[in-house]
Amino acid sequence: MSHTNQARLDWFRVVCAVLVIAIHTSPLASVSKEADWFLTRVIARVAVPFFFLATGYFSQERLRQAGIGKSLRKLALLYAAAILLYLPLNLYAGSLHNISPWTLLQDLLLDGTFYHLWYFPAVIIGLLLVRGLTRLLGWKGAGAAAVILYLIGLGGDSWYGLAVRLPGIGRFYTALFSVMDYTRNGLFFAPLYLWMGGCLHERMPDRGTAAVGLLLSGCAMAAEAVLLRHGGICRFDSMYLSLVPVSLCLFSLLAADSHGDRKDLRRFSLVLYVIHPWCIVVLRFLARPLGLWGLLVENSVVSFLCVCLMSSLLSAFVVLALQRTRKGAPPPPAPARAWLELDRDALIHNAKVLQEKLPKDCKLMAVVKANAYGHGAADVARTLQSAGVSAFAVATLGEAVKLRQQGIREEILILGYTPPEEAETLAHYGLIQTVADLPHALALEAAGYPVRVHIAIDTGMHRLGIAWSALDELEQVYACPHLRVEGLFSHLCTADGDEAEDILFTKEQIKHFFETVQALKDREHCVGELHLQASAGILRYPELPCGYARAGIALYGLSSRGEPEDTLRPVLSLRARIASVRTVEAGECAGYGRAYAAPTTRRIAAVTIGYADGIPGVYAGHSGQVLIRGRRAEIVGRICMDQLLVDVTDIPEAAQGDTVTLIGADGAERITAGEMAEKCRIITNELVSRLYPRAR
Ligand SMILES: *Cc1c(COP(=O)(O)O)cnc(C)c1O
Questions:
Q1: Exposed e or buried b for every residue in 177-211, given b needs 16+ CB within 10 A?
Q2: Which residue, 18, 69, 157, 607, has most beta carbons within 10 Å?
Q3: Strands, E assignment, 211-362
Q4: Are 548 and 365 in contact, with CB atoms under 8 Å apart?
Q5: How many CB atoms are located within 10 Å of the residue 429 CB?
Q6: 588 versus 64: which is more confidently predicted?
Q7: Residue (of 273, 219, 225) closest to 249 by Cα position
């Protein structure tokens, strides 16, 4: 998420909750009927769309890609609690006497069991609809469908008188109103706002546009409301056509440049919304015995203020009590300074794509060395484990032991050299050790522990392994009583090459490997699992008859050089924050060595990430860029150990605390790890495996 700053939005939720109280108490009724109508039936109508927009905005990512299960569960739970809270009033009002399964369902799903509770089923149904429509029709198609639903809702609401003049429409709405009280309930009102909230997350109009838009659409809405009312067209007055641009502009105006995050206010406004009808009832219940009916009920202004006060006190109490009960839990992590985000769905997707390229009986061995190429080994391994990956490869003993301690019970192969003194640890954790050469095998054997091994065969890379033609050496390993040879493998060192020479060399490597395998079989050795391909091998030579394929870089949706296959999805995003923004006048310099001189007056932002977090220092000199508010900004000056500078002159809204994306997407823009690596003149593997952002 690019815009996590939302304090102003949270404040406005409270305003909206108060507006809803106004709708339910008519504060100006005893002053002026007209003024009250305008306040409660026009102005206050922005409240609910605002809630919908905020929900859509903050669930955008989940709506588009992942599940919305968690949001739905939370909403359903809240709704259930609210139903219980109002059950006594339902009982008191006798509304449960002649209830049938059908009316119960209607109340639960459409109208809400109490007059204001329609909001919860509307959000739940709305989220499900937008998600479902997005899957079915794509994001844009879902928007079009939401517009149509909104128009149908509008026709049953303030535009009713006009809509029913169309042939057949009257009967349609009669049927509709036999199952729901209002068209704002259920499926017509919420989807459009939820969808638009998602769009705003991608692109937000700037403040000037939003302000002018609000002014114009506000006037339009006033005119629309007055005309519809005096024309006797309204059936209800919950929805207007111009409410759409009004809510959009208002939300954008508030969301722009908003800082911080007030969860307490968010909870407060929710509780306020849920409990205020109870306060209205209690106020009326107390007013008569106290002899204050005239003041507390009939004076609409006092009545409204009393309900606000009672509801606010109660809500504040609930929020504080909630905070207290949560004190026992560990404190939430401090706002991160620089951090990695993992797209677990993408990781699982990549594993599936690679697995599907391989023959049925060839299993994926996920290479999670070097902290899973900088992605975080524990997280990556657990995700893949849950997706059914049954073998992992690491570079070192330490990496392997750590995985075991983190609960990875699957096969773990150590690809690098492990000194023979560690044989006991290898045996203890049931790890598979690579035999680096004959002396290594003999030393491990001499240690005297039962060690599982795969023998590396040198087919031409000349890094590790016993030469493919040295059959007698290989046989000596098989003869070691403590070593359990469970597999043979080799490594293709030019599998990603396009030159005819590279391809020839690779084919030669493959041929020699299988010749050796055959020779050992001929001598009655059990060769066990065979593996040859790494990522490039899987993509270019998928058909080899092996038991495993060792996927590293491709698993992370990357390619060593350039951009990966487009069936693979990048897993990692790297983000930091703006620490400070300042103006640098023409001719002034910035950063170490005064390496950057401002050609004109520039706005320069300091960002909370540096070379000690893994950003190569040379990135600055090779037109390195970052994303801020969905736009690209150039890195200027030298990259420091913990910070770097970017030119944000063209992003005037850029402000302290803003999220800065170094790798990943922000809005429609994306910087890939491949792009960054290419500019740094290193391969992607080197770039990502060095990332180690300090979170705070
Ligand atoms: C690192 C490594 C791999 C994984 O390579 P990728 O190109 O990242 O898939 C496979 N095998 C060995 C021996 C390795 O060292």
A1: eeebbbbbbbbbbbbbbbbbbbbbbbebbebeebb
A2: 607
A3: 338-342
A4: yes
A5: 14
A6: 588
A7: 219
Give the C-alpha separation, 546 to 540, whole Å.
15
The H or E element spanning position 350 is helix 344-357
Name the residue type at position 433: Q
Q: What is the pTM of this model?
A: 0.58
Closest-CA residue, ligand 1 atom 6, reads 552
Mean pLDDT of 409-430: 96
pLDDT higher than 60, residue 2: no
Sign of CA dihedral 351, 352, 357, 362: positive
- List the catalytic residue out of 369, 611, 619, 679: 369
The DSSP-derived string for 93-153 is TTTTTT--HHHHHHIIIII-SSTTTTHHHHHHHHHHHHHHHHHHHHHHHHHHHHHHHHHHH
CA of 537 to the centre of ligand 1 (A): 10
**At how many degrees (to 10) do helices 243-255 and 207-230 cross?**
150
- The CA distance from 51 to 126, in Å, is 12
Per-residue model confidence as pLDDT tens digits over 545-554: 999 999 999 9
- Closest ligand 1 atom to residue 456 Cα is 13
- Rounded CA separation 576/608 (Å): 6
Q: Are strands 659-666 and 669-671 parallel, antiparallel or unpaired?
A: antiparallel
pLDDT band at residue 4 under the 50/70/90 scheme: very low
Q: Which of 355, 357, 367, 529 to mutate to test the pocket of ligand 1 (most atoms within 8 A of CB)?
A: 367
Q: Which of 120, 47, 124 is nearest to 81 (CA)?
A: 120
Residue 330 has pLDDT above 80, yes or no: no
Q: Which atom of ligand 1 is nearest to the CA of 554?
A: 9
pLDDT value for 64: 62
**Rg of the chain (C-alpha set):** 32
Dihedral over Cα of 264, 265, 269, 270: its sign: negative
DSSP label of 627: E
Measure the CA dihedral 650/651/657/662, to 10°.
Answer: -70
- H helices of 412-527, where? 423-428, 438-447, 471-478, 500-522
Residue 616, pLDDT > 60, answer yes
679 has catalytic annotation: no
Q: From start to end of 167-276, where are the E strands? A: none
Q: Which residue has the tokens 């109660």?
A: 314
Average pLDDT over residues 558-574: 92
Highest mean predicted confidence (pLDDT) among 91-95, 450-454, 619-623: 450-454
